[in-house]
Write a structure and sequence with these properties.
The complex is a heterotrimer of chains A (180), B (359) and C (249). Chain B has 359 residues and is an alpha/beta fold. Chain B is built from 13 helices and 15 strands. Chain B is 41% helix and 18% strand. Chain B is globular. Chain C contains ten helices and seven strands. Chain C has a seven-stranded mixed beta sheet, with helices on both faces. The longest helix of chain C has 19 residues. The N and C termini of chain C lie far apart (47 Å). Classes of the chains: A alpha/beta (180), B alpha/beta (359), C alpha/beta (249).
Chain lengths: 180, 359, 249
């Protein structure tokens, strides 16, 4: 098994964190992983993106040129990375910020108003956890339990009050993923 | 110890501390800033010294001082900052000081950009600073290897009393991969390491009267004395060349029709292309130099099996390692080069295309 | 027979190579005496600069490091931080400290490194043959200001003590001279105080020593001292700028 994923969005939408949680969980589940961010001044206000590779065997290139999975949290990300998704691959689209969508019929598309749902759940800041939920609900790349465990240990140290909201976001995401 | 997911910049810092590095001096520069930040956070916790120096020039000279005092010390920077350190590196080499310098390379020349590149190969392996000297140069290709090299570099630096450079790049610095750290040295072991060098370094004269007058120095004004000193350095370098060459052989076998040579980040992309071609029944091998100096000339030569009809060098520069490969191949096979610059990393697809042109 | 004067133990037997009339030897001796008097010889390290005193490591009989041009304060920082049990000083000339090494001296002082800096100012580059220094006086002729230092073009001489005194961290800053026996006695006191404060880990200590360069000034040693008294001291006024041990701010 080898999955190559790109998460992209505006700086501040938490795309690097999406990748980090997936990579961390996959590592804990015994997989080889790599997490490669875009970095530099373009991250402020422009698009930030991260490439994550999860594999049963040693990962050679961490550079993803043809993704199995794309998480696009805004239109520029969808425009930039959408064409590079492998035929038969998966594109998770935040329709609130991708008004034009993408014209591809050879991939599976999951359209969800993720910004609105995140706000309903209490904060736009859980958008990334919602996305994680959608990813694992659709692909089963990592298990919910591992994500929950990591989220708990991460937030316990930083901000335990936010745990419930974040868990709810992951669960809601899984529902969206499962329903497609 | 279990694996942790870490950025290369942080992993190399953690590994250096575990290997007994207790002094670190540097100046911020992208894409190595996580390294200096990690050291700023962790050094006080182990009773070590962290100084954000006023410049890379000052940082390398602090390293010169601390190394001269026999303690495990490290500095890091990215390409433009490494240029500034070159004066001090030459002095360290001249004074035979065991320093470790990490270069998280970015695109150049000049200010260049902040994306990954391998354009400091010449600087690292062919001089950089002035004078006849050699740096031991280690080139990691994974975060794990980057971390392991912190300890290896410190060991080599002290074994030979010579500066060692870890030639990494922005990709390895910024990316996260699982790392398993070696056990941390105890405080006693760290103290013991420093004691081993008290026969030459700056240290208290504990016996009392005039036991020693140690000099940390690269100045030999008498040409005959300097000649002897440089010749002695080269005796040491010959020993390093004999014992410390490292490389990885990837898919090397008698069926290889193409032999690739690539190091660091570039080698990982090449490996992906090789794997891909393998599924199509095409045999391509790779020599990945791990020590860029001493260079694994013999490994390259040995890998030239009879079916190899093309040697292909891939680098994220304009062909700086190419000359070394040509020396190794010694005219026995045609050598091609392809690379990308500007901080752009080639993709496995691009490499595959280049290799397919040779079949 | 009673010995009433002898060579300090902290000086090797190597004869000074300095030009006739040069005062580096006097400055070296003052430091060596202070190191001996404070019983620091076994834990002392000096940093030699690039300049006439580049061979200082041959003259001081304790551990020595030779630094790249201007970098002595950074090297001293590295040594002191690596081995806090050692006591460290730098010995630097005006080109080394006030031109190429300006950043290093300012920042070592600003961090309050526990080191002593002995700054020998003779208003000229000696070793390379009499070029203009950052401390060269207005209208003074050197091989690189052959028509005299024109301040509009070449800038004014830099007063390092005054500059250092703008920083919060330094513990002791004093300017002395070696231009007469009385001045040498005063200089000895300043050097001894810096070394004593160094021993006591009080903080950063800085002593500027006004000196001469008969060879490159092109005059004999006696005239050189007179010239320095008349021309350098009015501009580089001997003064204790700070001594926290004595409450001088």
């Amino acid at each position: 098994m080898k999955k190559e994923m790109i998460c992209a969005g505006f700086g501040g939408q938490g795309v690097l964190t999406i990748g980090k949680f997936i990579a961390q969980a996959a590592m804990q589940e015994g997989k080889e992983v790599s997490w490669l961010p875009s970095y530099g001044p373009e991250m402020r206000g422009g698009t930030a993106n991260v490439s994550v590779v999860v594999s049963d065997t040693t990962i050679a290139s961490p550079i993803v040129s043809q993704a199995d999975i794309l998480v696009a949290l805004n239109q520029p990300s969808l425009d930039k990375f959408g064409p590079n998704v492998r035929p038969g691959g998966l594109i998770i689209i935040n329709t609130d910020m991708c008004p034009h969508g993408i014209k591809r019929e050879d991939v599976v598309k999951i359209n969800a108003p993720m910004s609105e749902i995140a706000k309903e759940l209490g904060s736009l800041r859980v958008l990334n956890m919602l996305a994680i939920g959608v990813i694992i609900g659709t692909t089963g790349m990592v298990s919910y339990e591992t994500i929950e465990e990591d989220l708990e240990s991460f937030l316990q140290a930083k901000n335990p009050d936010l745990l419930e909201q974040n868990i709810a976001a992951v669960k809601r995401g899984i529902m969206i993923g499962n329903s497609k | 110890m279990s694996k942790v997911l870490m950025k290369g910049n942080e992993a190399v810092a953690e590994a250096a501390i575990r290997a007994g590095c207790r002094l670190y001096f540097a100046y911020p520069i992208t894409p190595q800033s996580e390294l200096i930040e990690y050291m700023a956070k962790m050094m006080p916790k182990v009773g070590g010294t962290f100084i954000q120096a006023e410049s890379e020039v000052a940082a390398i000279n602090m390293v010169y001082g601390a190394a001269g005092a026999g303690k495990r010390v490290m500095t890091s920077s990215s390409s433009p900052g490494i240029s500034l350190k070159m004066e001090g590196i030459s002095y360290c080499a001249g004074a035979q000081l065991p320093a470790v310098i990490v270069n998280v390379q970015r695109g150049g020349p000049g200010l260049g950009d902040i994306q990954p590149a391998q354009a400091d190969y010449f600087q690292a392996t062919k001089g950089g600073g002035h004078g006849d000297y050699r740096l031991i140069v280690l080139a990691p290709s994974t975060v794990q290897e980057f971390a392991d090299m912190a300890a290896d570099a410190l060991d080599l630096a002290y074994k030979y009393r010579n500066p060692v450079m870890i030639l990494s790049d922005g990709m390895l610095g910024q990316m996260m991969e699982p790392v398993e750290f070696r056990p941390a040295k105890t405080e006693e072991e760290v103290q013991e390491l420093a004691k081993q060098h008290e026969n030459w370094c700056i240290c208290p004269n504990e016996d009392g009267v005039n036991r020693h007058h140690h000099e940390i120095n690269s100045l030999e004004i008498d040409p005959l004395v300097l000649e002897k000193h440089v010749n002695n350095l080269f005796v040491k370098y010959a020993e390093i060349e004999q014992h410390e060459v490292r490389c990885e052989e990837y898919n090397i076998n008698g069926d290889n029709e193409i032999l690739c040579v690539a190091f660091g980040t570039a080698s990982r992309i090449v490996k992906s292309a090789i794997n891909d071609l393998k599924t199509e029944g095409k045999s391509v091998g790779l020599i990945r130099p791990i020590t860029l100096w001493p260079y694994p000339y013999e490994c390259v030569a040995r890998a030239l099996h009879k079916n190899v009809r093309q040697v292909y060098v891939f680098e994220l520069n304009k062909g700086q390692m190419l000359d070394d490969v040509k020396i190794a191949v010694a005219g026995r096979c045609d050598v091609k080069f392809w690379g990308k610059v500007g901080g752009i990393i080639f993709t496995p697809g691009e490499i595959k295309e280049k290799l397919l042109e040779c079949f | 027979m009673e010995t009433i004067a002898s060579r300090p133990l902290s000086l090797t037997k190597t004869p000074f190579h300095y030009c006739p009339g040069c005062l580096h030897g006097v400055a070296h001796r003052l430091i060596a005496e202070a190191v001996d008097e404070n019983g620091l010889r076994n834990v002392m390290t000096g940093i030699a600069p690039v300049g006439c005193s580049v061979f200082a490591y041959k003259f001081f009989d304790f551990d020595m490091a030779e630094a790249a041009h201007g970098r002595a304060p950074a090297v001293a920082t590295g040594i002191k931080r690596a081995r806090p049990e050692m006591h460290v000083f730098t010995y630097q000339g005006d080109g080394d400290l006030a031109a190429i090494g300006t950043a290093e001296i300012i920042h070592a002082a600003n961090r309050g490194e526990h080191i002593s800096v002995f700054f020998v100012n003779n208003a000229i580059y000696g070793m390379t043959g009499g070029q203009m220094a950052p401390t060269t006086l207005p209208e003074m002729k050197t091989t690189t200001s052959p028509y005299g230092r024109k301040v509009d073009d070449m800038g004014h001489p830099i007063r390092m003590c005054e500059l250092m005194a703008t920083l919060v961290a330094p513990y002791y800053i004093e300017r002395v001279s070696l231009l007469s026996p009385a001045d040498i006695i005063k200089a000895k006191k300043a050097v001894a105080k810096a070394i004593k404060y160094n021993k006591e880990e009080r903080g950063f200590t800085f002593v500027e020593i006004i000196s001469t360069c008969p060879t490159n000034w092109g005059i004999d040693p006696i005239k050189a001292r007179d010239w320095a008294k008349d021309n350098m001291l009015p501009f580089f006024k001997p003064n204790c700028f700070r001594d926290r041990g004595e409450g001088v701010e």
